[in-house]
Structures are given as structure tokens and as C-alpha cells.
Amino acid sequence: MKVLPTIIAQGLASGVTTHCQCWLLTRADGVALGFTDHDRSLSIDGHVFEAASGIEPSSVESETGLAAANGEITGALTSARITAADIEAGRYDGAELRRWLVDWTAPALDCLIDVVTIGEIRRRDGAFVAETRNALHALDLEQGRLYSSTCPAELGDADCGVNLADPAWRVATQVLSTDGRHRVSAPAFATPVAGLFARGRLMVVTGANAGLSRPIRVHDDQTITLWEGLPADLLPGDSVVAIAGCDKRFATCRDRFGNALNFRGFPLIPAPEFAFVYAQPGEGRHLGRPLVQL
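Now predict its structure.
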């Protein structure tokens, strides 16, 4: 049961209230933006909550239990601080949104209503529609380890142990040629290991896309192709960093990275269809030899 601050409770009980809602949106890069549905901007605890921001929350039902409750916020791109380019660049993905009930005659952030994170964001007719997810959404995420032949670790994380700061696994260079959004070419990408950067990431250091990164779909000699296009045009001369990728197979972990001891998959487990295999005379495929050479 939520206990309301005295000034909020008294105002609600009076029948004539001076209340408004305030939202504080904090991006993953630390940028915090405040908005309110009051007709004047409010300054509270060092944050400026901009009025007339155009944000409208949808109704969200709360109930007992551990079911995740999702909602939406909708609004026009009326705030100069929220740009379509930043939304397209993914700068608001996973941002935290806190909502308070505030008495604008004595504004204070002491009545927190809910805390959600921003999920999928769509643009429609000059407006944005952002999915909101509450904390229980984390319970729907995969927990623990799964038994699979491929490795569940991400290349370079604590479970993997490969040092991606090693020059062998990254190349910093300048763009020689590009189609602007998806394809990038530079002589430095022609590494001795074919396809080294496939499934890796391309980080943009300078230019209109500075600070952004995108997953790499294909690495072919001097050319890298991205899965998802950049929001602004990449130009020749822009500085980029390409980071190696991994296809999660045991052979790649062993032969390319020399990291077999940290492989987190289970290559010795037969595939599901193995249950339907039966012995045939003269087959001679499984004579006690290991299926995977460790």
C-alpha cells in the first residue's frame, strides 16, 4: 500500500487540487530530461521539468502477482531536447522513466508513482509511441544457462575472457568509401583472418554518428556491411573502430581465439535429431571416437 506525503494527501482530500505529473527520463548515457503536464515548467531538485511537452501516458492496470505490466507513452516531437535523429539512433532504448505526482504550489519529488524502462519506440505521423515496461519485465528474461552446442557468452565479456582491447581483435581506421548508412570500406579491414568482424560491432568515433555503434552482418575483405543502418550519413574520412565477432561455435573459439577452456557451450551433447537415429549394419560411423575433437 502506497503512503502519500501529507501535502499530497491533504490536497487530494480537499477536492480542489493543485497537482500535476512529472516525468524524468534518464538515458543510458546519463542524459536526464524532465517533462510535466503542468502549464508551466517546474524546477525541482536540480531538474527542469519542461511544460507542454506533448507526452501522454496510456492507462496501466496494476494487480497482484508477478505478471509484467506494460504501457505506452505517446507524444509529438515538440520538445527541442527530443529529436527524431536521437530516437532513430537508439539513444532512448532502455532509458529509465520515473513518474511523480507533484503539488505545483510546493513542488517536491516525494511521491513516486512508478518506475519503468523504455522498450520499443515507433515513429508515426510526426509523433512517437514508446513502450514502457515495469521492473517485473526482468522476470521474463532468460535466466541461468541453457544446454546448447553453441556458446551463450558474448565475445569479450567476463564469461568469455577474450580481451577485445587486443589489437588482434580490433581495427581503428578512417572510412575510405561508403554508401552512407550500411556499407563501409577501408584497407585496414582486410585482416589475415577472413570474416573476422562478422557478428562484431562497428563503432563510429567522429562525424554525425559519433558515439554510435552497430552490429556487423558481413565482413568481406575491405568491406563491412551492417545489420542496421546508421541514422546519419557516414562520410569518407570519418573515424571508426571495427571489433571482432564470433559465431559461437567451439571450433571458432578454439582455433581463432585460442579460448577453448572458456567455451560455455556443450559441444558433446548430440543434436535433438540424434534421438531418432538407429544403428544400421555396416554404417560404422560411431566406433567409440569422440564426436567433437577437444
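The mean pLDDT is 81.
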